[in-house]
């Protein structure tokens, strides 16, 4: 998988991709992450990438020219599989969508800033899909881009050592629970910590009973915190 992140702040993106599981995936060659700065494609000597909005209003708008030219610089290698634009007004990133994106070869991510981007970016760049990581607004799209990279990369074979860990995480869809359940609680040594013991069923060795307990815990937690996920 190749991720191309168009960002005004490459230093906000690249350091994270060299750490933890994503960093190991890069070292193995399973994924590559590159950051392209639209400032390098500006047509003015001041490297200005924003301007005041037509029609008035507060804030600034990212200009189309640097973004479109930065995107087109990628086409020398191949047409990207999909282009994502980070935006609080986009389609919510879900576990299911991340799993589908993991089957692609090249994802371009445009990081939004200011009041947003000139809408003509959509006219000039094909196959742009706005993506949101939640019902809130960030000061920039870099954190959202990293969330996309991290969430998608988990589904690329070899990135996570044990695939059953991925399939058993929160929001993993099943036939009965299409939106998935929130994950059950976990415990490790010691058996008792500050007076709180590990539930006896987890020490029983009865795998059927453990599976039933974990399912019930997941169902109870989902019903309590995210009832909207239940059918």
Q: Would you give an account of this structure?
A:
The protein has 231 residues and is α/β, with parallel strands linked by helices. The protein has two domains: 2-153, SPOUT methyltransferase, trefoil knot domain (Alpha/beta knot), CATH 3.40.1280.10; 168-229, Orthogonal Bundle (Trp Operon Repressor, Chain A). The chain has seven helices and nine strands. The strands form three sheets. The chain has a five-stranded parallel beta sheet. Helix 3 crosses helix 5. The longest helix has 19 residues, at 207-225. It is elongated.
Characteristics:
231 residues; Alpha/beta knot; Trp Operon Repressor, Chain A; five-stranded parallel beta sheet; 9 strands; 17% strand
Q: What is the strand tally?
A: 9
Helix content: 25-40%
Assembly type: single chain
Major beta sheet, strand line-up: 2-1-6-5-7
The largest β sheet comes out as: 5 strands, parallel
- Here the CATH topology of the largest domain equals Alpha/beta knot
Instruction: Give the C-level CATH assignment of the largest domain.
Output: Alpha Beta
């Amino acid at each position: 998988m190749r991720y191309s992140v168009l960002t005004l702040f490459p230093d906000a993106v690249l350091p994270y991709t060299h750490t933890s599981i994503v960093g190991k995936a890069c070292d193995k060659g399973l994924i590559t992450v590159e950051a392209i700065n639209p400032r390098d494609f500006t047509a003015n000597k001041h490297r200005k990438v924003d301007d005041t909005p037509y029609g008035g209003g507060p804030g600034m708008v990212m200009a189309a020219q640097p973004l479109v030219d930065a995107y087109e610089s990628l086409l020398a290698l191949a047409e990207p599989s999909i282009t994502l634009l980070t935006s609080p007004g986009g389609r919510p990133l879900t576990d299911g969508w991340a799993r589908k994106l993991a089957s692609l070869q090249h994802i371009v991510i445009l990081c939004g800033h200011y009041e947003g981007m000139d809408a003509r970016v959509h006219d000039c760049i094909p196959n742009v899909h706005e993506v949101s990581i939640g019902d809130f607004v960030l000061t920039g799209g870099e954190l959202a881009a990293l969330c996309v990279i991290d969430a998608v990369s988990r589904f690329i074979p070899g990135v996570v050592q044990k695939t059953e860990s991925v399939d058993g995480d929160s929001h993993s869809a099943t036939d009965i629970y299409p939106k998935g359940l929130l994950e059950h609680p976990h415990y490790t040594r010691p058996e008792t910590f500050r007076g709180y013991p590990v539930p006896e069923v987890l020490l029983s060795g009865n795998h059927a009973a453990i599976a039933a307990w974990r399912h019930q815990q997941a169902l109870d937690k989902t019903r309590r915190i995210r009832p909207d996920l239940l059918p």
